TrEMBL record:
Organism: Gossypium arboreum
Swiss-Prot/TrEMBL keywords: Metal-binding, Zinc, Zinc-finger
InterPro entries named among the record's database cross-references: Znf_RING (IPR001841), Znf_RING-CH (IPR011016), Znf_RING/FYVE/PHD (IPR013083)
Source superkingdom: Eukaryota
Phylogenetic placement of the source organism: Eukaryota, Viridiplantae, Streptophyta, Embryophyta, Tracheophyta
UniProt-listed Pfam families: zf-RING_2
SUPFAM superfamilies the UniProt entry points to: RING/U-box
Protein name from the UniProt record: RING-type domain-containing protein
Domain RING-type: from-to ranges: 29-72
Amino acid sequence: MIMTNLRVIEYGDFVKRFGDEVMKKDRVCSVCLEAMEKRNEMRELCKCSHVFHRECIDGWVKEGRLTCPLCRSALYPDPMDFGRPDPRNSFLDCDVIY
């Protein structure tokens, strides 16, 4: 499920979105330690937006690892807890007058 839902992008598109500063500091895949080239297929993680070579992160997941190799956030967002109100909805905090 994780591999089918993590989007595949070209590293060049990632660089365009976040700027050339990305090329200066985040140019190495943390799984294989090889350079990332603009034409490489990458997977961008949902929660942290870290990118890795597609085949590297796929192998990472196949080994049963479910967290980002860099920051250890979950590779895929947590399922929503429908039993609790969403704290972002401030109207739920209002007093109700009957």
